[in-house]
Write a structure and sequence with these properties.
Length: about 750
């Protein structure tokens, strides 16, 4: 088992070596960053007072600096100087945010632990912060008690009560959860309860281009009425209960209403991302056997109208219900048998205010079919059951602290897991969902976050990278944000330091899971110190295992790096795949731990000396360089920092002609495509080699550098290194790859 390798200490140390310690910072150092002399004097005085109170290099020092010295309008280079100066000699995982004891007691988990901590944890219980890790372990060792408690806290009711919370059965490696229970998750989203009434705002939105107009709002009563109307019209289609109905739309008010109506009426949503080609749409429609599809005529992005309906027609879809994008009526001619939104609703217009009685189904009934990215062949069709929505909501309740009064924004789409997650994590926890019908990369989106008074903003790292590069968030007030969420791909320290600084250093809750999990397995918490680009805890109810070279788990809680496996008993996780062998994919060949077969995940994770987790990408995104295994992400983090003109890089191992050790190829995307022709790629390769050998391993050597206008990505924004590796292997065997274009 490897000792604490401090691999990620390099990520901080490599920046820290360029900065002075806090006590060595001078007035001229701050002025050199573009700060006016008067402001610089004031900042230096505040810094001196903080260092006197807290010391020169403690987490408390940084906490005070982030709150009392730094502000969004100050140069980011100053933020870096303070952060890296404070943590110059700290080592790995310096906390960028610390929980406040008083605030911690007001979180969902804090209030629960203050009320029942001694009952649940016994004499171990001290306070919400110091006892959080014990509570997480309790959720794994006592799943029946934990999940009953959380479902009660979230006001979950059953039309038929479960026989028990969990029934373990060797024929079901993941266990049978809530056996015998009947419910409908959409009904829960639309029902008032002790924490929510019909006049509460549940949806807030704005269309791109209307950025100066007030945000639009919808109450729970209004949402319920809209959903009822669609559900009544769905009944006129003559489909049998359990039929699959696809949605190929952006994440907007219409798609949310349609999504809830399909589930409420006892049908199954087929999630299709609005970016998919006709071929990808067709594949998903055939796998799911969808009987109908909801879509829009166009997607409007700025001055562009991107066709959706024509793609659906080209995919030879079943009957389509077509919603106009921004007008009251469609401007296109429909295929024979398709229905306009107006005509669809007119079928039951007299029922608009008439209650639709939800179809209560067994918890194992399907509610949603989602798909893996499909980068390795036919996408896996992964169903959500009636339980999965409550896994998503429970993660939001516990780890993001979503509750009544929150306004949650997360640029996403119903075509991948975070779309349904956003619907359920918001509405089942009594919060409002904030939707921007446009590009999240624009200043219009940044203004919407301000105007909607968003309290939780979810991101993916590539969005943050673009915001930082374009500075499109400048001048907007994000002070209402209480925390960020991040998922989709691995983040970087500098980009997320910048992100935290936009909202006066509110924490980033990193969140990693999967379509087959229905939520997260590793995440952060508002009750624990949060380090940048790191996870602080296994998700509630989840246990994590890092597999060593022998394929067996290393000692629990020991530092190490390897492929990640999960404990099998995960509430809400998949138990079937519609077009593949679920057991073969997730359990076959996995080691047994305490009598239970572990569940395969496929990512490489590191558990650090201080107990944080860091993602290193897919297991097949590792490479062997001269007998040394290394992840693409480790190399990319260093290469990204070599030149300010670099937007992002991808590191891949390409086998040479005739076999032998993999050659390291770096694919570079520049911030400005005009820079591509100006760059001396030979000199850039020299810089890459110098940085990698200095900061990662002296034996590593870049063999080739390739420039591309953008990296190939899945619909969920993951870099497809496998595609790059395959194409470069075919195109560049035995030659330099400087000018290859794919």
């Amino acid at each position: 088992m490897p000792k604490c390798s401090n691999i990620h200490a390099h990520q901080n140390a490599m920046a820290a070596v360029e900065y002075k310690g806090l006590t060595s910072i001078t007035l001229s150092d701050i002025e050199a960053l573009g700060v006016d002399t008067g402001v610089a004097v004031d900042l230096l005085q505040k810094l001196a007072g903080i260092v006197s109170d807290c010391g020169a290099a403690t987490p408390q020092t940084w906490q005070r600096i982030s709150q009392d010295v730094l502000a969004p309008h100050l140069p980011f280079s100053l933020h870096q100087m303070m952060y890296y100066g404070c943590y110059k000699d700290f080592g790995p995982d310096p906390p960028a945010w610390l929980p406040d004891p008083g605030s911690a007691m007001l979180t969902n988990v804090g209030k629960l632990l203050e009320k029942r901590g001694k009952e649940l944890l016994g004499s171990k219980y001290k306070d919400p912060i110091s006892s959080f890790s014990d509570f997480q372990k309790f959720s794994v060792s006592n799943p029946e008690v934990y999940w009953k408690t959380v479902l009660d806290e979230m006001n979950v009711s059953f039309s038929i009560l479960p026989e028990c919370i969990l029934r373990e059965d060797q024929s079901h490696p993941g266990g049978q959860w809530l056996p015998g229970a009947h419910l409908n998750p959409a009904r829960h989203c639309l029902s008032p309860n002790r924490d929510r009434n019909l006049n509460d705002i549940v949806l807030i939105w704005r269309n791109e281009g209307d950025d100066e107009a007030p945000v639009e709002k919808m109450t729970l009563k209004e949402l319920r009425s809209e959903v009822w109307a669609v559900a009544h019209s769905l009944e006129t289609l003559g489909l049998s209960k359990g039929s699959a109905i696809a949605i190929d739309m952006p994440m907007n008010v219409y798609s949310v209403v349609v999504y809830l109506a399909i589930v409420l009426a006892g049908y199954v949503v087929v999630s299709i991302a609005d970016s998919f080609s006709p071929n990808e749409i067709s594949t998903r429609l055939k796998i799911s056997k969808a009987k109908a599809i909801f879509t829009q005529d166009f997607v409007v992005r700025g001055k562009k109208r991107i066709p959706l309906y024509s793609r659906v027609v080209d995919a030879e879809s079943p009957m389509a219900i077509v919603i106009p994008s921004r007008a009251s009526a469609l401007s296109i001619k429909l295929r024979y048998g398709d229905i306009s939104w107006q005509d669809f609703l007119a079928r039951t217009k007299e029922s608009k205010e008439v209650q639709f009685d939800s179809v209560e189904q067994p918890v194992e009934a399907l509610t949603n079919i989602l798909f893996s990215s499909g980068t390795t062949g036919e996408p896996k069709a992964i169903p959500m059951t009636g339980i999965t929505p409550f896994k998503a909501a429970a993660d939001g309740w516990c780890h993001m602290d979503i509750c009544k009064g929150d306004i949650v924004a997360w640029p996403t789409n119903l075509g991948w897991m975070m779309g349904p997650w956003l619907v359920y994590a918001s509405l089942l926890n009594g919060a409002s969902m904030a939707l921007y019908n446009g590009s999240p990369l624009s200043s219009g989106f940044a203004k919407f976050i301000q105007d909607a008074k968003v309290t939780m903003l979810g991101v993916i790292p590539s969005i943050v990278r673009t915001w930082k590069t374009t500075n499109c968030t400048a001048g907007f007030d994000w002070s209402t944000i209480r925390r960020f969420g991040s998922t989709g791909e691995a983040s970087s320290v500098d980009e997320y330091l910048w992100l935290m600084g936009r909202a006066r250093y509110k924490p980033v809750i990193e969140y990693c899971g999967g379509t087959e999990i229905g939520g997260g397995f590793v995440t952060g918490s508002l009750l624990q110190p949060q380090a940048l680009a790191a996870f602080s805890t296994a998700a509630m109810g989840c246990s994590l295992f890092i597999l060593g070279e022998d394929g067996l788990p290393i000692a629990p809680e020991a530092p190490g790096i390897g492929e990640l496996a999960l404990g099998s008993l995960i509430f809400g996780a998949s138990s079937t795949v519609l077009n593949a062998d679920h057991y073969k994919i997730y359990f076959k060949g996995m080691p047994v731990w305490n009598g239970k077969r572990l569940r395969r995940h496929g990512d490489v994770f590191e558990r650090t000396c201080r107990g944080y987790y860091r993602a290193h990408g897919r297991a097949d995104d590792t490479m062997n360089l001269g007998g040394i295994k290394v992840s693409s992400l480790e190399i990319e983090r260093i290469c990204n920092a070599v030149d300010d003109n670099i937007l992002e890089t991808a590191a891949i191992g390409v086998p040479p002609v005739g076999g032998g050790p993999e050659k390291l190829v770096i694919v570079v995307v520049f911030k400005d495509s005009a820079d591509e022709s100006k760059q001396n790629l030979g000199a850039l390769m020299t810089s890459f080699n110098s940085s990698l050998q200095k900061k990662l391993n002296p034996l590593f050597k870049v063999s080739n550098v390739v420039t591309l206008p953008s990296l190939p990505r899945t619909a969920t924004n993951k870099v497809m290194r496998r595609v790059l590796r395959q194409q470069f292997s075919q195109a560049g065997r035995g030659s330099r790859l400087y000018n290859i274009v794919i």
